[in-house]
Structure formats: structure tokens, C-alpha cells
Amino acid sequence: MDKNWYLDVNRLARRTSWAHGFMTAYVERALAPVGAGLLVLAALVLAAWLSARRAPEHMAAVVWCAVGAMVALGLAQVLVQLLARLRPYEVLRHVEVLIPRGPAHSYALPNSHAAIAGAVVCGLVLARRWRLTIVALVATLLLLFASVYVGANYPSDVVAGAGLGAVVEIALWPLGSWVLGPVVASLAGGPFEWVVASNAPAHQPSRQLVINPRAPKLPDARAMDALRVATEAARRAPAPRPPGPTSSIRTTVIKAGGRPGGSSADEAP
């Protein structure tokens, strides 16, 4: 299956000569033997460092992104000699090879460029640089495809390389954070603070809400005069007396034309 996929991509390369220049430059010819693909990933790591200076708590993960990529590269160089898998153009005949062939009996499993790319993607995830992670993932997939397109690697070579980089970056992150955390903290309090922290505040300070109390509204003079007059009238008015039984009897006798049997003093209410 690995051989068939390689031949399918190789036939595609034969029919798309207009893409040869871009693919070869992306793999290794832009800055041989680095290539534009790795330059893009390096620029993304640099952008992650600049953004992490405003969030120093993620700076250790950004540093580990670069360090882990170098560790993955070293392990890939060791494994490629141990596994000793020949490149496809040394095994298959009449295949399209767009880059200069390496020395005789050169090996490519796992691919070192793919190992760096896989480590960078996982490192950006650990650093929580989500937008940069998406760009790095696209750049990595293009790099993996271009390595097969130019005829230098089997698909399994690049997949194994990317997997190696991802495993190294994630598995060794606890050790990396244990080592790099104190280093970043010591730099933050020294003369090289600009390396890990920016002097500009991460967020603009919020404006304080100032409330200007308004003076209480004084009542109108006319309304005060009217209220004073009404209060005085209510105070001078006699209090109403509830009707009692004596007044009821007196009213009945007067209507009948007679007088009660008591004295006139008794008729007083």
C-alpha cells in the first residue's frame, strides 16, 4: 500500500509540472537543505514567542516547542540510521525525482523535516496558540505531501516522522516544563526580562465609573405656600364628634315638640 500511494503521487507529479518549482522550494531548495516549509514553521514559532511575551505563563511551553523540535530532529537522525530504509528512488525504477538525489544508500525513515513539523504543531497546542496551530497544521500537511511529491520519501516515512515529533513533544513536556519553568521565572526578574515578558500591559485598564451626584431639587415657593395654608386650615378646623345616644334622643324630642324631663343642663351635648 505504501508503494502504491507513492506511485500514485509520483504520477500526479508527472502531470503537474507547473507545481514543480513550488514543491521543490517548499521541501528543501528555498534555503537548502531547510526549505520554505521549515522556514514557515520557524516563523510561526517566532510569532508564538512574541505573543507569549504578553502572557508569560505560556512562555515555557513556547520555548519547549522549539527545544522539543530539536530533540525530535536528533532522535530522527539516530533512528534513520538504525532502521536503514532505502529511499524509494533507490528501489523503484523510472520514478520522477525533483530534487538532487542523495548519496548512495541514503535513508529516510523517519523523515527529519516531518519530525520537526510534528513537534512544532504539538508545541503550539501546549502553548495554547490556537490560530498559529491551525496555520502550522496546514503548513505541516503541505510539507508531508510535498516530500512525497518530489519523490524523496514514501508516505510512511513522513507519517512516522510527524508522529515521532508529536510523541517527543508531548511525552517529554512534563520534564521540559520542570526544567524551563524556573528558567523563565528567573529571566522574568532579571535584566533579560524583555525575552520572556513585554513591558506593555496585556489589557488596557478599565475606566473607573465616576458618578456626579446631582443637587436635590428644591420645592417650588408657590407649592410651599399652598402646603402651609392647607396645614394651618386643617389645624384650626374643629375635630368632628361622633354621634351619641343623648343627641339622638334630643333630636327626637325636638322634632316632637316636647322637652326632656331633665334640666337644661342635661340637654347639653
Structural class: mainly alpha
Strand content: under 5%
How many H/I helical runs?
12
Give the averaged pLDDT, no decimals.
Answer: 77
Based on CA atoms alone, the radius of gyration comes out at 46 Å
Main CATH class: Mainly Alpha
Shape: elongated
Order of helices and strands: HHHHHHHHHHHH
Number of domains: 1
Alpha carbon gap, first and last residue: 125 Å
Largest sheet: none
Q: Poorly predicted ranges (pLDDT <50, ≥5 residues)?
A: 200-211, 246-269
What's the CATH architecture? Up-down Bundle
Keywords:
disordered C terminus, elongated, mainly alpha, 269 residues, Vanadium-containing Chloroperoxidase, domain 1
Written overview of the protein:
- This protein has 269 residues and is mainly α.
- The chain has one domain: Vanadium-containing Chloroperoxidase, domain 1 (Up-down Bundle), CATH 1.20.144.
- It is built from twelve helices and no strands.
- The chain has helices spanning 2-15, 20-29, 36-52, 59-83, 88-91, 112-126, 130-149, 155-171, 173-188, 193-196, 221-236, 245-256.
- The longest helix has 25 residues, at 59-83.
- It is elongated and about 125 Å long.
- The model is unreliable at 200-211 and 246-269 (pLDDT under 50).
